[in-house]
Design a protein that fits this description.
The protein is mostly helical. The protein is built from 18 helices and three strands. Helices cover about 50% and strands about 5% of the residues.
Length: about 425
């Protein structure tokens, strides 16, 4: 990752960095195991209680109860991060690190097929993944204030005045709000058209969230730094879905689907475009899950790590993990994702092995990890995956592949299914053996 050169200190390129994310980054740089670092993640979740703009009670409860099932799932999912992906997630620099679609850093990211979480970030075209500078943020904030004023005018027009009575500043502010919306919405406004509600005022909306967005952006305008330096960190939006690829693309206005996008992400994109800068929308899969019940916990975890609450430093305005979703209708999807996370990408296994080594000083469970390695190596697992290119086939076809592998490796190697079973047992066994410090 390109941001590996950045030290965990506030500067012009990284104008916001909390105490706990800084400690986490330092721990990663020092090689500390993810299990040993998880207590800092718990503290990050608890810190959400210092703000009251977005609800957080249910999220905090899941992280606090170290004897509960949610805590166990959250800690397990934390181990699915590549360490070099986790670092820029904490920094807020993933769009900068992944702006080049040919970058080798993408090898440290999961394929998006399946269920899980994703990150939406922004950069400016031609800046190699960098965001705005301080002067540009101040321009965007001024424009957002005009948008808010236009929303207030619309409420006044709707309740008390006819359109023909609009004059001067009121008329200019409402028209400015409608022109801003036109940069990301399919419904356009042109001079001479009838007025209609700015997008933020539809469906009973108000401008409170934009006020929070303005405050968040102003926290990025730190003093005593060069105001022309492009920021490498940027505010992000975290989402989740049963079908991550389809959902991610809905947040990009270039595809004309922003009706389902996060409202503040839409406003921010529109205002940046209004000051004449071309926005690049980055869609990055984060934690992919192998059980449907894990989706909400993955969303909680990534939201906390990305500090994506609007009141903290991101673009999320709702407590994660609460939306009820229709169950996935493809029963093989989670098994395919499990193979991808547990076998095709090696770092989940490596992270757990390291955590066990730190906590247990290489006891019998670490021997079980070594036994897995001895039976089926990383290279063998990758070779099996290369043979089976169509990982999206029906589960019956996938099982047939496992049966064939069992016959081929009857006396020497375990099959992939046995490998998964052993990893299942290993993960289950590891639960009581992450003892409380």
């Amino acid at each position: 990752m390109d941001s590996n050169r950045i030290q965990p200190e506030i500067c012009a390129e990284v104008p916001v960095l909390g105490r706990l994310p800084k400690l986490l980054i330092q721990g990663l740089d020092n090689g500390t195991s993810l299990d040993a670092l998880f207590s800092l993640v718990v503290d990050m979740a608890k810190d959400l209680q210092q703000q009251d703009f977005v609800a957080c009670k249910k999220v905090v409860k899941c992280f606090e109860d170290d004897g509960g099932e949610p805590y166990r799932i959250l800690r397990t999912l934390f181990h699915t991060f590549h360490r070099e992906t986790l670092r820029p997630l904490l920094f807020g620099t993933l769009p900068y690190d992944l702006w080049d679609t040919d970058s080798p850093s993408w090898k440290k990211i999961y394929d998006p097929a399946g269920a899980g979480t994703y990150l939406i970030g922004l950069s400016i075209q031609g800046r190699s993944g960098a965001f705005l500078n301080r002067n540009e943020i101040e321009q965007v904030v001024a424009l957002m204030r005009q948008y808010v004023a236009g929303c207030h005018v619309w409420k006044m027009v709707k309740d008390n005045l006819s359109h023909s009575q609009l004059r001067g500043r009121n008329r200019a502010n409402l028209e400015k709000a409608l022109r801003i919306d036109s940069l990301v919405e399919s419904k356009k406004w042109e001079p001479g058209d009838d007025y209609f509600a700015p997008k933020q005022m539809t469906n009973g909306g108000n401008t409170d969230n934009i006020g929070a967005l303005i405050r968040m952006l102003l926290r990025r305008c730190i003093e005593n730094v060069d105001p022309e330096v492009f920021q490498l960190s940027a505010p992000v939006y975290i989402g989740c879905s049963h079908k991550v690829p389809a959902r991610m693309i809905q947040h990009d206005p270039d595809y004309g689907r922003t009706g389902s996008s996060a409202s503040l992400l839409r406003v921010l994109i529109a205002c940046i475009r209004y000051i004449g800068l071309p926005v690049v929308v980055h869609t990055i899969p984060m934690v992919m899950v192998w059980e449907e019940s894990h989706i909400k916990y993955a969303e909680m975890l990534v939201t906390v790590l990305a500090q994506s609450y609007i009141s903290v430093g991101g673009l999320n305005v709702a407590q994660p993990g609460l939306v009820k979703r229709k169950p996935n209708d493809d029963p093989s999807l989670y098994e395919t994702t499990k193979i991808h996370v547990w076998v095709k990408r090696p770092w989940f296994h490596e992270n757990i092995a390291q955590s066990l080594a730190f906590r247990l000083n290489r006891d019998v469970l670490l021997d079980a990890v070594n036994e897995i390695d001895a039976q089926i190596t990383e290279e063998q697992a990758r070779r099996e995956m290369a043979i089976n290119r169509d990982l999206e086939m029906e589960i019956s076809t996938l099982q047939a592949k496992f049966d064939e592998a069992r016959e081929r490796a009857e006396n020497a190697n375990r099959t992939r299914q046995e490998h998964l079973d052993r990893l299942d047992n290993f993960l289950a066994m590891s639960t009581p053996l992450f003892p409380d410090a």
